[in-house]
Amino acid sequence: MQAGDLDIEEALRRCAGGDDAALRAIYEREAPRMIGVAQRIVRRRALAEEVVQDSFVQIWRRAASFDAARGAGRTWIYAIVRHRAISILRNESRLELDADGDAAAAAAEENADDVVTKLSDSSSLRRCLEHLEERARKLIVLTYVHGLSHAELAAREGVPLGTVKSWIRRGALALRECLG
């Protein structure tokens, strides 16, 4: 299926059947426009790209729920983008840290390396934490020791939530591999 002669409704039916080439065709044809729509809502390019990525995951997972009798396929996918963008904006506005939250998080960050140094020199956890990239080590300590949520870290770091989740996940996988 080529993006130039794309029938969105047919592509969605094929996605529902597990055809990833159909999803790729929708992406190639619509992603630039979808990023534009998302960016008008969220006002940041990186966040708009995250919205579109999340939207394509939803399109893939929910393609079977598309009903052409209820509307056009293009309308359906852009509704997903719009709803996802609004949801992300709503979540971000709830997660803005106040001055006290910033001070507590800053204190926690200063102590992230202290947590690692407090571990026994012979500890395999310490050895593995020290081999992690500094950013991953800091985020893992802030999450698992100081109890900050991924959303709080995203607001603090000024990056999209998905980025923080990816960094923490990669760090945790590296830790698991090192400890295993």
Automatic annotation (TrEMBL):
Residues 26-94 form the RNA polymerase sigma-70 region domain. Residues 124-173 form the RNA polymerase sigma factor 70 region 4 type domain. GO terms for biological process: DNA-templated transcription initiation. One of its GO terms (molecular function) is DNA binding. SUPFAM superfamilies: Sigma2 domain of RNA polymerase sigma factors, Sigma3 and sigma4 domains of RNA polymerase sigma factors. Keywords: DNA-binding, Sigma factor, Transcription, Transcription regulation. Belongs to the sigma-70 factor family. ECF subfamily. This is RNA polymerase sigma factor.
